[in-house]
Amino acid sequence: MANYKEAPLASRPKTLDPAEYFNLSPDYRRAEEKRAALRAQLKRQYLEQLNNPHRKELIEDPALTRWTHARTNNNYFRPTAKTSLIGGLFGVLPLFVLYVVFKTDRDKREAKIKAGTYERPYKLST
Amino acid sequence: MLKVLIPTIMLFPTIWLTSPKWLWTTTTAHSLLIASISLMWLKWTSEAGWTSSNTYLATDPLSTPLLVLTCWLLPLMILASQNHINPEPINRQRSYITLLASLQTFLIMAFGATEIIMFYIMFEATLIPTLIIITRWGNQAERLNAGTYFLFYTLAGSLPLLVALLLLQQSTGTLSMLVLQYSQPLQLNSWGHMIWWAGCLIAFLVKMPLYGVHLWLPKAHVEAPVAGSMVLAAVLLKLGGYGMMRMMIMLDPLSKELAYPFIILALWGIIMTGSICLRQTDLKSLIAYSSVSHMGLVAAGILIQTPWGFSGAIILMIAHGLVSSALFCLANTAYERTHSRTMMLARGLQMIFPLTAMWWFTANLANLALPPLPNLMGELMIITTLFNWSPWTILLTGLGTLITAGYSLYMFLMTQRGPTPNHIMGLQPFHTREHLLMALHLIPVILLVAKPELMWGWCY
Questions:
Q1: Which residue ranges traverse the bilayer (chain B) (predicted)?
Q2: Domain check: are B381 and B444 in the same one?
Q3: Interatomic CA distance for residues B289 and B430, integer angstroms
Q4: Counted domains in chain B
Q5: Which of A61, A72, A123 is the best substitution to test chain B (most B C-beta atoms within 10 A)?
Q6: Which of B160, B289, B394, B415 is placed for a possible disulfide with B199 were both Cys, Cβ 3.0 to 4.6 Å?
Q7: B436 part of a folded domain
């Protein structure tokens, strides 16, 4: 820690900051110890399950469960201005745009076929 | 027809009278025998269109590939279900196989029907075993919701069809497809006729499913047990396509104007559902949305009513049926081992199951329509005929193909490559039964590369 010199493109990382390790209040130290104890408990729980030779099932990961629940159950959708705009822009507008595009294209072709001026560009049997 | 139908009905006494030790062996063998007999239908004997010995059940080049697919799928479903049903009491196992066999009977009668009303009755009848399979043997609590969505979406779509069919019977005096194909074109020029047109098609569009009304499909496919997912993806969706192809004959010339919204929904749906696939975390949900995407292509191909469109639709239906069912079987093998459908969990499987990685690879390549597999044949025919219909569609279908390749590769890389989680233990090695299941799914796909004329429908 004493040897680290800051450079123009390399600022001092938090882990090498002396303020993190010296001049800490006792309250802060107690809180950190409690947190470390909780972490160690969780880690011990996990390692016990991991190294249990009789375990046959998955270790349940609550974070994964929460993540999959959040990703799959989108019950928190609220129609706001932004979501309505996105929904309209990607869900409703393309349908109308495509209708206009296809209809005009097909009508032009129908008119040409009826007038007899349509030259078939490809010899397809479709 | 009867040479397949009667053995299928005889499957019921087989199920209930065999001793418990031989139940699965006997039913699998019996259904394999039915499947091999059904291959005889592929020999198209009559040049007059329909092959039949009576006027009620007949096969023609459109229904034959679908019938063979249905018959082929029953032994595969029984093979796939063997593991997860085995712990249950014997009578419940028998009921499960009875449901699969009854589904088979209804499907054979549906695809072989010549009277449209019989097709309708069988179409509705298939809902009941499927509903029971999903709601009774599904694995999560959401299965009730899934069953409700499945039942009511399909029923709500098909009630107008009943009315439309009765009206058709009133006006033409017959509902036999053998007769209707020669009838005079109907005078369709009023608003009432347009509603009749919509009524004829909505049931099948909901079943296909079309993009706007596809909400039942991810729920039903995900919550169903493996045999339910297989039969849903492989055959029940094709009932919608088959019904549409049969009804389109009578619906001209209104279809030229009225089909636009549905074609547009189908094409836009390819892109939307493909994009949703890229964001899925649940493996079965990804495969379900990919089914919607492929069926959107089929729906567009059918709705533009060209010969290539129909051929492409049939080919894609058969190929997608086999491949989608194969993917659901693979997803089930992962589910049976980890009891979770999360893709992040069952990662890096190539390291522990190398032979299965080959099946995953082939199935995913087939899903993204790799040449020379029939998936590409169907997709290319539909894309070409859509391009001929209107060149602007190539933007949508091309983007759709790109996204399909994207999510198929995503599925493969997510499940096979990457670091194997090291807290997953006790994964049973792959059973021979599961390898056999995958082989029986993918070998027909590869064989169809050699003789695709079996699937081309009337254009052969």
A1: 21-42, 62-81, 93-111, 117-137, 149-168, 194-217, 224-243, 258-279, 286-304, 310-331, 352-370, 390-413, 434-450
A2: yes
A3: 27
A4: 2
A5: A72
A6: B160
A7: yes
Query: How far apart, in whole angstroms, are the C-alpha atoms of residue A14 and residue B246?
Result: 71
Secondary structure letter of residue B214 according to DSSP: -
Give B82's contacts (C-beta < 8 A, 6+ positions apart): B24, B433
Phi-psi region of B429 (alpha: psi -120 to 50; beta: other; left: phi over 0): beta
Q: What is the spatial distance between Cα A49 and Cα A57, in angstroms, rounded to a whole number?
A: 10
Which residue, chain included where needed, has tokens 């696939």? B277
Q: What is the pLDDT of residue B460?
A: 62
Helices (H), chain A: 26-50, 62-72, 81-87, 93-115
Across the interface, do B308 and A98 touch by the CB < 8 Å criterion? no
- Residues in chain B with CB shorter than 8 Å from the CB of A106 are 389-390
pTM for the whole structure: 0.92
- Looking at the fold, whether B106 and B158 belong to one and the same domain comes out as yes
In this prediction, the residues of chain B whose per-residue pLDDT falls under 50 are none
Residue that finishes a domain, picked among B206, B235, B251: B251
Strand partners, B282: B342
Strands (E), chain A: none
Q: For B423, name the nearest residue in chain A, comparing CA atoms only.
A: A50
Give the type of residue at B217.
L
- B12 lies in the same domain as B89: yes
Q: Which domain holds residue B316?
A: 258-459
pLDDT in tens, A58-104: 888 889 889 988 888 877 888 899 989 998 898 899 999 999 999 99
Residues B359 and B430 in one domain: yes
pLDDT over 70, % of chain B: 98
pLDDT over 90 at A18, yes or no:
no
- Give the three-state DSSP class for B276: helix
ipTM: 0.86
Residue B49 Rama label (left phi>0; alpha psi -120 to 50; beta) = left
